[in-house]
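Purpose: get a first structural picture of the assembly so the mutagenesis plan has something to point at.
Setup: three entries, given in the order below. No constraints added.
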Amino acid sequence: MATTTAAIHAPVQAESGLWSWITTVDHKRIGILYGTTAFVFFLIGGLEATIMRLQLMRPDNTLVSPDFYNELFTMHGTTMIFLAVMPLSASFFNFLIPLMIGARDVAFPRLNAFSYWIFLFGAIFLNLSFFFGGAPDVGWFGYSNLTSKQFSPGHGVDFWAVGLQILGIASLAAGFNFIVTIVNMRAPGMKLMRMPLFVWMTLVTSFLIILAFPVITVALVFLLFDRFTGTNFYVPAAGADPVLWQHLFWLFGHPEVYILILPAMGIISEVLPTFSRKPLFGYPVVVYSGIFIGFMGWGVWSHHMFAVGLGPLADSFFALTTMLIAIPTGVKIFNWLGTIWGGRIEFKTAMLFALGFIAMFTMGGLSGFMHASPPADLQQTDTYFVVAHIHYVLYGGAIMGIFAGIYYWFPKITGRKLGEGLGQLHFWLNFVALNVTFFPMHFVGLLGMPRRIYTYAPHMGFDWMNLLSTAGVFGIIAAVLVFMWNVSRSLRHGEVAGPDPWGGATLEWAIPSPPPAHNFGTIPTVHSLDPLWHREGPELVKTANRIGGPIHMPPGSHWPMASALGITLLLSGMVFGWWLGIPGVLITLYGIYSWAFEPCT
Amino acid sequence: MRFRTHPMMFRRLMAALLVVLPLAFVAGCSMQDYPQSSLHPHSNYAQWIQTLLEQLTFWVVIIFVVVQALLIYAAIRFRSRPGAPDPKPIHGNTALEIGWTIAPALILTLVAVPTVLTIFKSQAPPPEDALQVRVVGHQWWWEFQYPDLGITTASELHVPVGVPVNISLETADVIHSFWFPAMGGKRDVIPGRTNRLWFTPSDIGQYPGQCAELCGTSHANMRMALMVQAPEEFQAWVAAQQLPPIEPEAGTLAAQGKQYFTQGQCIVCHMIQGVSAGVIGPNLTHVGSRTTIAGGIFPNDAADLGKWIINAPARKPGAKMLSLKDMAMSPEQVPAIVAYLQSLK
Amino acid sequence: MAVATATVAAHEAHPTSTGLNSRKMLFWAFLGSECMFFGSLIATYLVYRGRDQVGPHPHEILNIPFTSVSAFVLLMSSLTMVLALAAVQHGNVRGTRIWLAATALLGMTFLAGQCYEFTQFYFEGLALQTNLFGTTFFVLTGFHGTHVTVGVIWLWTLFVMAMQGRLPRERALDVEIAGLYWHFVDVVWIAIFTLVYLIQ
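Result (structure tokens, whole complex):
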């Protein structure tokens, strides 16, 4: 304990080396681990997309086999959702939530480390499938009964189902942790309605995670039982209904959509006020609409299933609930416009991405509104129109929001700003390329091109629009390369940021960049929503940086990592066999017991 | 594009302006350029959807233009300029916020009403006099049965113009989705369920369709065609299909082919009425009358049929039909079998 | 021992925004998640009820008197759990040990009953693969049984700690959280017993 107390005076983390990262329980380091790992998977998912676009570049193309193509879009979807966007959001949760609410760490630092490690192992396990008999090829939604042993005899589906279970543990653990952190670890005076909007969206997202993931856990348990023990959950011959899978999957899947987008909405709700020099317009309404979206997200799942034939009553009900959810979404967009209205807008890269988010998310929201109407949806579902829709929401929305966050908080994380010139180039390349890639998909879909087809005939009129989409991908690749070059350059030569490069309003800007291991010398007391913009600001900054007494920081621990490894081995034993499963059980038990009895402060 | 369903002149004008803008090039181009287009309705059902889509597009384009215009205006008007004063710290405006909650709610109501009406109209029971068709999805081809006419065929669905078609949808294996964009929305084909769909084709012509739900390796190759025919033409087709299969004359190549067909493994999967009883693959009783083979992906000519018989899985990945080698048959038999199958008009 | 006390002290030292203990709050969140888990399992059982193509059907095989007894046993274990918590909160070392052991033993009795029931069903022709009833019944009650098993292991761990004198009054929270879990598993059983056994 003496060592950690001594270490707090050093401005940067004293410990370094691989072991310190493996055993770290510091939320900032875990955030960085999450971010870099997720970015690698973002690149892998992008590579998969690129191969698909090359295959679709022209009709009757033979670059890849149909089975490999099916693997590509399954892994692209699964990777981007579970291994890129979610953990990128988690990276922001980790790094920022304690800083924004004025805490020294999350409520359960070791559980936090465990989340990261089990995410990493699950992600690796899922991707190992490429080298062990083929990746899953049934779509990221894995509709039963195509996933049955009869129609998918290989191990791909097993890798997918087990992999998602492992990743689910990571998400659940993080969800519990952030709920408790946000509810219980706020600085004195930070009432719920004084929390930054990003914190609010994290809280709503965490609730969605802990309530939605058990549902897919059960759906996957059924699938695994069917495949490994011959049960009848999805076996039509035994009287079962494969549509059960769709209900369970989308009961998880639609909240999952908000799990992906709400954090990005939170990010831009921080970025827009800072660069408009104006507080968020209608803060309570934005908060309530976020909560309302979170609630309503549970009542719309069947709009993914209009083609199933649920009957006119169910179709009407889910059409109306889906349209209802457009209202709080629209309110958010208008409140963001209200925020920049009358402001003094500085077009820093982060701001460009945030404005780009509004433009592109509106686009995706409106096409979503079009297939909220079941008759229209029946022409659009399972076509490229929906591919365009989800990419405007998830690429134009979630990913652009995440980039806004990266440009905004990079100085806080590293102490240096990202280059503005390269940043602007990144934004414009990305903005143009994403529209070149995804806009034609609206039309190619309406003109009758289904999703998930590895080839199309030449006389269908799909040719030039597909070629255009493929060309756009190279623009996206260029944009991502510019970003990576910018990061690697800025880490070494970037402008030194200081504690508050943008004139932000929230607590994280009160402390040095990068923050010391203990974050705040003294936990400040908060009196308003934008403390640093108020008269209390200068005093608060002084308090936050004054070390008032001995600070206990939790020591590192390797047990979370060991437990995560054990659980992964245990579950991968289902695919690889008992020789991996049994050591997994032993490591898990030993890891968890050692963790439980390890002193944690 | 048709707007005759819009009652008011004003709406017609606005719709013409706003809908045509984003869909301009689609409207301008013909069905020949985009044969599988969902924007060129050729049935009552597709027309209902089209009308609804036009209303949706109308509002969507308005909202899109308003939001993007406000965004661009704000970005330009309120950009940071040297010497500009600090902005007023406005925290909100209740009246404004109530306003922009109610406005979308009103638009939603305007769209929700026709949506619900169209749902119930399109899912109402079909007219009594409808032509009954049973569709069975297979990996990766479509089977069409006319229970009242005693006809079973594959990949090409013949219907008469102006007559309602009542389709029941089933599957032999996994989930598929039945979709002829020109006829209206798609409907999933689900194991253990019988789904329904009906429409009245309004124009004579040939319309492509294909499976719209991922169903395995050759999902992309599960295509089909709808032949909407004049009533007398359809009657002629029905009459021809109801005949027993043509018996090749003794001594011809086709007769030799029939012998190979019945002695080989073909009969395990394929039915030719009175000749073989297989039900796994498509019914071949009148295979010579179809324009395509292999789930609608190859033309039904001697060359393609021959290549198909020699090695089907090589031509269509995942195809369940065995290659000639796996059926222990020899390539010399192929021309005769092709001749026989082509004779089955 | 010293380490354990230090941990407790450190925990108490951090006041929380709500005044509620963070571990307890984590556990409540976990139970919320568990509700969705069992909710999905139970809903599946209900959706598939009566869709079997072949027997045996529930009314032919479920032994309500027997399961009523084991349900009663599990209910009683909730009572002993309450007594265990009261004992540890009052620093009653002997009571803590007795009631923890009693709870764990009652839990094990329930599990033994479930093992007997499963075996019995198997010999009467109901396996996991037999029909939809077998599939949904065994997986639902099996997952509940797994939860009871975890609870029993947890209780014995606490018991061993109590025997070693590592469960002083200051660590009553450890018992309280185990108790939350135990009561939750009990309540789930009441739901399962009602929906699966009583309302056929």
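Chains B and C do not touch (no CB pair under 8 Å).
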